[in-house]
């Protein structure tokens, strides 16, 4: 259910396309539900964002070109500061500063948070504000103390709308840590079987030596 997401995304030309292709009535009914006009983050969205170790962020240049950037960090590096604000520390990278430059002209952003193993995604519209190094109080809420990288600034994003997207066509992907968790029972079982096999081999060896001595 889109929480004010449709109000932003469904422009007149988008609605016209929906009408021509037969989906407009269904979306119109969905938009009429009062809850869809509430863009406050609930506990479900906060927990989902806090569990992510990456996301994608789109900005638009003054020449009208969209730019999508992948952002990564330790799990929880995107902080939910309240039910309408998220933020993250901006660490030094390749120093192209494309997103930073785009935001100087247009503060609107679009974010995708992906959970590939569970085939779930959260789309979010917002307005970004740059936090300078002089704002130590805010940066202290955004930094990850155990992440060794140089902080150059922070980003605060006021949520304007969001929507949970359908799982269709999301391909399941796993990080190494997720694979270790998933395969942990199998790894433990293999280790136990190897120990049992070693004990059987030892017992057989002892029995063989005993029979040989008796002969």
UniProtKB/TrEMBL annotation:
Residues 42-150 form the Pyridoxamine 5'-phosphate oxidase N-terminal domain. InterPro entries: Pyridox_Oxase_N (IPR011576), Split_barrel_FMN-bd (IPR012349). This is Pyridoxamine 5-phosphate oxidase. It comes from Methylocystis hirsuta.
């Amino acid at each position: 259910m889109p929480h004010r997401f449709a109000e932003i995304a469904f422009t007149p030309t988008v609605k016209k396309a929906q009408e021509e292709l037969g989906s407009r009535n269904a979306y119109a009914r969905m938009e009429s539900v009062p809850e869809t006009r509430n863009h406050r983050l609930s506990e479900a969205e906060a927990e989902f964002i806090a569990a992510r170790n990456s996301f994608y962020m789109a900005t638009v240049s003054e020449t009208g070109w969209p730019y999508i950037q992948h952002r990564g960090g330790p799990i929880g590096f995107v902080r939910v500061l309240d039910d309408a604000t998220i933020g993250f520390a901006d660490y030094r990278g390749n120093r192209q500063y494309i997103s930073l430059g785009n935001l100087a002209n247009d503060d609107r952003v679009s974010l995708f948070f992906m959970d590939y193993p569970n085939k779930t995604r959260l789309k979010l519209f917002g307005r970004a504000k740059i936090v300078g190094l002089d704002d130590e109080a805010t940066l202290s809420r955004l930094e990850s103390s155990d992440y060794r990288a140089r902080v150059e600034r922070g980003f605060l994003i006021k949520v304007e709308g969001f929507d949970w997207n359908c799982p269709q066509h999301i391909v399941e992907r796993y990080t190494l840590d997720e694979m270790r968790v998933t395969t942990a029972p199998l790894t433990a079982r293999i280790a136990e079987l190897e120990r049992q096999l070693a004990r059987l081999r030892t017992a057989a060896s002892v029995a063989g030596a005993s029979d040989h001595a008796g002969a």
